[in-house]
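Risk register update: the risk that structure generation would not scale has been downgraded. Supporting records follow, first protein first.
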Amino acid sequence: MVRGDPVWRKEDCSQYDIGLIFKEISSYSDQDKLKFIENVWKPGSRHIKQRKSLVIRFLDSTKTVREEFVGFYLCEDGTTGAAIKDLIIGAVVDLGLSMDDCRGQCYDGAGNMSGRLNGASSLIRAEHDKAIYVHCMNHRLNLCIADTCFDNSPKRQQHLINKIRLLMPAANHFVLVNVCRPRWIERIDGMDRIVELLHAVVATLEDI
């Protein structure tokens, strides 16, 4: 894979339906299922290495603002600001575009992305001064929503417990799961708990 070549492109993602994948796996023998799990989901697998998504916002020929997902790129050289800067520029160049035409860049607030000295945004702007950095408002909204939930508030957590007892008296669990973030497959446990308690969670959030 050459630099700038995405691991998954938009067209790759669209042709894979999760239901079809599960249907295919279900036809495997028990031994093959174990091999699949070991190869894909084991700790240290290449499939849980960091990836960066690339989305390009542009004005098309009809002067309509568009945002297009390009692909997921494997961070083979690490996740430092310099490595991500090289990854982004390489991807843009491989698309046949010029960074000289870039008028903005948008990331979350992590130091390696938006750091004033060594963040990817600062390093890119040092070479292309018209590429102004803007904090990703969708990410900021996501953080705000997460902070309004239950982890940081005993009062809200108690409200959730009360709702579970009222609406789901047969429930065996009363808290949501905050699982290990680096190991993405373990987040399934957290999703299972949300599905299990969804009725009470929605009712609690509506009250809040």
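Supporting record for the second protein:
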Amino acid sequence: MLLLLMLLMLLLLMLLKLLLLKLLLLLLKLLLLKLLLLKLKLLKT
């Protein structure tokens, strides 16, 4: 029983890490997009 609980906890932790990684990647992409837009605006003016 204890072993099962530990396995479940490990799985949950791994899932959380994956989610966090995906969120971080999304944030990075958004930041890059904003930077690109800023550069485009600067180039146009």
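The two ends are 66 Å apart (CA to CA). On this basis the risk owner (M.S.) recommends closing the item.
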